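The instructor's notes for this session suggest beginning with a concrete chain rather than abstract definitions. Hand out the sequence below and ask the class to guess, before any prediction is shown, which regions might be ordered.
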Amino acid sequence: MSKPSDEFDRVQSELSGIGKDIRRWKADAAKDKAGDEQQISQQIHSRVQELNKLKDEYEKIVLDEIHRLETNNGRQDDILRVENLLPPDTIKRRQKDRKRLQKKQQSSREHQFNALEGVQGITCQRKIHALMDHRGQGDTFCYHPRLNCAVPFSEGEEVYLTEKMDGTTMQATNDGIYKRFERTKKSKKWHEQSEDMRYRLERIDLSNRSHKYIARAIDRYLPLFKNIPNGTCIYFEAIDPSIGTRFQNLEGFDSIYVFDSTRDGDFVPFGQTVELCQTLGLPCVAYSKMILSLSSIIETLSRSSLHYTAISNALLEGYVVRSINTSDSAKIRVDDIPKIKDTGTETR
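After discussion, reveal the predicted structure:
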């Protein structure tokens, strides 16, 4: 990229110097309450008028520099910094033009983007059953401290215990990012329906501002997604302070955590997902191997202020128990513990 002209460097130095003087005087005036406020105010006003007059005079030189940056694909931050040297009215006009162009581009992208492209053949994220047995609905709903007969786990078998993340569930292949959406509102029979009946899968346009937090969370991993093998889909949680409430105090933190994967439409054992993450360089949910003991898990989740391994200042949602040899899994959350009705742990 070509360098700024000597003339612009001189203009930038002169305008920036006056701006610093004005900011310094304002700061001094705020500190010195006993000073002559009227005199200081007049000095600042005079200096501001001088600055605006020079901005009018140097407008063409500054616009030429902006044109140089835009022509050479300069960083937007650099362009906006130079734009601040323009007269106030010119800045407002450029901001309006920029917003108008962004809306036009967004409308064009939305018109061209096909949310169903690439969806066929991709398995939608499955429902994970509860680890504990449960009964009732609504006010009568409760858990029992025994294993749910709907999940193929037994006390004493070796399993993976993974941390359950609480972000936005997403899916990715090497040619797209996908998200599931509910087809209908939840009802009494909703939980009895298959995933295909409950959900639809759509490809996500990351340039759409409605997905800006998801885009921010996965942006640095997009090049790695290109290396996902053909026929493979990964499932992950997108984490960002603006996604949900669990991570809202993590200013500046965003990431993804992979927890599942399919090959040719079939879910694979968790160990293979771990190996895939290691190969691709993608972050995986925290996990460990354990001998399954429901009472031990309940005792752990009963403790106060459990935190994520990788995010030490965010409260843990719960765990997912995963089979060593199959793709079977079951979940148990911190919020489930107060809903346990009886205290005696039964096994099967």
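Then share the key points. The two ends are 70 Å apart (CA to CA). Residues 152 and 328 are 7 Å apart (CA to CA).
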